[in-house]
Amino acid sequence: MERSPIGVVIATRDRSASLAVTLRHLLALPERPEIVVVDNASTDDTRALVAREFPRVRVVALPSNRGALARTHGVRALHTPYVAFSDDDSWWAPGALAEAARLFDAHPRLGLVAARTLVGPRNEPDPLNEVLAASPLGPAVDLPGTQVLGFLACASVTRRTSYLDAGGFHPLLFFGAEETLLAYDLAARGWGVTHCPEVVAHHHPSPKPRPGRPAAQRRNEVLTAWLRRPLPHALARTRDLAADARRDPQARRALHETLTRLPGALRARRPLPPHLERAARLLDTDPAGTHGRPGTDAAGTPSADAARTGDTADTADAAAGRRARAHLGGAP
Questions:
Q1: Is the pLDDT of residue 324 over 50?
Q2: Which of helix, strand or coil describes residue 264?
Q3: Residue 289 and residue 96: Cα distance in Å, rounded?
Q4: pLDDT tens-digit profile of 283-308?
Q5: Which of 77, 150, 202, 245 has a CA between 20 and 30 Å from the CA of residue 33?
Q6: How is 87-155 classified by DSSP, letter by letter?
Q7: Model pTM?
């Protein structure tokens, strides 16, 4: 059988039961992709379970929890031209990976595909799908689908060379709304980021709450602004966070963590090129609804990227609120 041009990377931590469900779905795909599980220093039976029940699956065992950076370890471990990301509660529809490979083959500038996401056992469309499809950035003559500056990590497929060219997920952010920065960096390097609804992912998030998640999301939206957006924009986001911190414990935590990481963000600061900043501003002001609020990402919505770092469950409210994730860097 011909080897699949797409591999799958899953970052996980302490979620062996959920991971097993995901692996059974992925191993049943007709594309038979190579699968790499990157274990973020789990303390449960994750490694033993994969070795015992899924001998086809390769495990990259990290000595410490690296957050979303675990995905980069997985990309480097694979040598397929294209890499799909899953979380330990998501998988790909049969034929989706073959369709993604066809799109990449036909469009050399395509760097990342944001898929259509179906949620839960009833396959309900994620509200994000509609917003991605309506992105004001529109189509490009040399790309499929609709141009976006946002995606859901567990419903994305990337060209391996483009991902590594852009540097992958940034280590400063760890997890929580980390997709924004990668979308910016791909686009800044000339790679296309588009929504292609013919590529379909399934997401079955746990209803359990994720303590500390809102703080991580707010922290990272502000850090992303300092890393890539104009200084007045970054200052405005920081002022808003400081104002919210007077009354909101999650905002206080986010502000403390932001200030702790701010020197690193300033050292790594690389503003977007003018044409991309104009696109980001267009998304800031798009009327689809991207106004920041406490506990949300830069798009004004709860992040559900799920880096699978031990804080991985998604609530029903968060799933509904992801409808504006396409609009990254949204104005407060």
A1: no
A2: helix
A3: 30
A4: 988 755 332 222 222 223 333 333 33
A5: 150
A6: -TTEEE-TTHHHHHHHHHHH-TTEEEEEEEEEETTTTEEPHHHHHHHT-TT---TTSSSEE-S---GGG
A7: 0.85
- The pair of three-digit structure tokens given for residue 270, joined into one six-digit string: 């690389």
Backbone angles phi, psi at 118, to 5 degrees: -110, 135
β-strand pairing of 146-147 with 90-92: unpaired
Q: E strands within the chain?
A: 6-12, 34-39, 58-61, 82-86, 90-92, 110-119, 124-125, 146-147, 156-159, 192-203
Is the pLDDT higher at 253 or at 2? Answer: 253
Query: Which residues does residue 202 pair with via DSSP β-bridges, in sequence order?
Result: 91, 118
Structure tokens at 75: 């990309």
The pLDDT confidence band at residue 2, using thresholds 50, 70 and 90, is confident
DSSP β-bridge partners for residue 9: 36, 85
**Alpha-carbon span 123 to 269, nearest angstrom:** 40
pLDDT at 287: 59
Computed over its alpha carbons, how large is the radius of gyration of the chain? 18
C-alpha 284 chain-centroid distance: 19
